Amino acid sequence: MSKPEQNLSRTGVLLFNLGGPEKLDDVRPFLYNLFADPDIIRLPWRAMQRPLAWLISTQRYKKSQGYYKKIGGGSPLRRITDEQARSLESELAGRGIEARVYVGMRYWYPFIEEAMEQIERDRIEHLVVLPLYPQYSVSTTGSSLNRLNDILAANGRPALRTSVIRSWQDDPSYIAALAQSVSLELERFPDQAPARTHIVFSAHSVPVRYIEEGDPYLEQIEHTVRLVMDQLGRERPHHLSFQSKVGPVKWLQPSTDEMIRRLAREGASQLLLVPVSFVSEHIETLYELDILYRGVAEEVGLPHYRRVPALNCEPGFISALADMVERQISEK
Predict the structure, then answer these.
(1) Distance between CA atoms of 82 and 86, rounded to whole angstroms?
(2) Residue by residue, what is the 3-state secondary structure of 39-57?
(3) C-alpha–C-alpha distance, residues 237 and 280, integer Å
(4) CA distance 123 to 119
(5) pLDDT tens digits for range 228-254
(6) What is the pLDDT of residue 246?
(7) 254 cis-preceded (ω within 30 degrees of 0)
(8) I want to staple 143 with a disulfide (CB 3.0 to 4.6 A). Which of 20, 39, 180, 321 is the partner?
(9) Which residues face 162 on adjacent strands?
(10) CB atoms < 10 A from the CB of 182, how many?
(11) Do residues 210 and 217 touch, judged by C-beta distance below 8 A?
């Protein structure tokens, strides 16, 4: 790809992510911020949003603290996202692209507001917005974009040009990086016959109503799975399941718990979990996949259970992010 010729000294990249409590005392306010978001819990009466968030966070925080204790007392998400930002900045610099990379979290520090304040101080003129969610959902990328747009509208920044990468579920470099990470983990099973290892892609679930109202999340998750399996070979048995359901409404099924139990009943002995909607280690990989679902596999007598690591700062993944940013800058 040819290098863009523009002066890029006023170019910035904003990475979106969820955020996470870095210590146990952060868990309750983090949960409050999460459930106070109307894109997470949709209520007909907005006046009830904050009282409900207070109630849920008060009821749930002690149990959640127990989960965080099991992964070291806090989420590593901020540290990893900061590392991704620095790695991306370095990768872009190696391509001759001068760009500052910022991190904006939706529900914990550094918030999107803080990132935008720094972007203002740095006098950025062109901002590439890159959510660290490969597949678009109104509850993840959509929520962060809504917050960003509110901030821009309030601050009146007509001089700031924004280029938004809404989703990248089919980006070739991303698919190649994910397929490579799956392939490396497949090599660790004792029986190397392709049909012997069941690959389970586990994605964060969302309410079914979101999909019925037009959220493209499920379609994009399925697209990612198809593309990865095209590279791995479709003779390998593979499945899609969902995790992290919260609340009584109908969510996408089957659950990852149900999938593990079903495959064990059907005689599977080798199972590989792939965190398909997550690109960074956090509570949903380190606790749910590594502890909770590993415990399910042990309970049902499934002897060989492995999990593909999140991509984090894997060079092929950082290169994929840089490819996306470079395309946006080239179109400037």
Answers:
(1) 6
(2) CCCCCCCHHHHHHHHHHHH
(3) 25
(4) 6
(5) 999 999 899 999 999 998 877 899 999
(6) 81
(7) yes
(8) 39
(9) 127
(10) 21
(11) yes
For residue 71, give the DSSP letter: T
Cα-Cα-Cα-Cα torsion 39, 40, 46, 47, nearest 10 degrees, comes to -140
Read off the pLDDT of residues 91-117 as tens digits, 9 standing for 90 and up.
999 999 999 999 999 999 999 999 999
Domain boundaries along the sequence of the chain: 24-70, 172-307
* Structure tokens belonging to residue 323: 């490819």
Contact predicate 123/20, CB 8 Å: no
Could you identify the residue written with the tokens 């791995």? Answer: 232
CB under 8 Å to 126, separation ≥6 — which residues? 8, 10, 11, 12, 160, 161, 162, 163, 329, 332
For residue 244, is it left (φ>0), alpha (ψ between -120 and 50) or beta? left
Specify burial of residue 92 (Cβ count, 10 A radius: 0-12, 13-18, 19+): buried
**Identity at 280, one-letter amino acid code:** S
Instruction: List Cβ neighbours of 14 (8 Å cut-off, separation of 6 or more).
Output: 101, 102, 103, 104, 112, 115, 116, 119, 127, 128, 129, 130, 148
* Alpha-carbon gap, residue 80 to 249, rounded angstroms: 32
Selection from 186, 183, 178, 184 nearest residue 203 by Cα: 178
Q: Where are the alpha helices (DSSP H) in the chain?
A: 27-35, 49-70, 77-94, 112-121, 141-155, 172-186, 208-212, 217-232, 256-265, 283, 293-299, 315-330
Amino acid at 173: S
pTM (predicted TM-score): 0.93
Laid out side by side, the sheet with 304-307 consists of 238-243, 197-204, 270-275, 304-307
* Residue 84 structure tokens: 């991704």
Instruction: Give dist(CA 68, CA 266) in Å, integer.
Output: 33
CATH topology of domain 172-307: Rossmann fold (3.40.50)
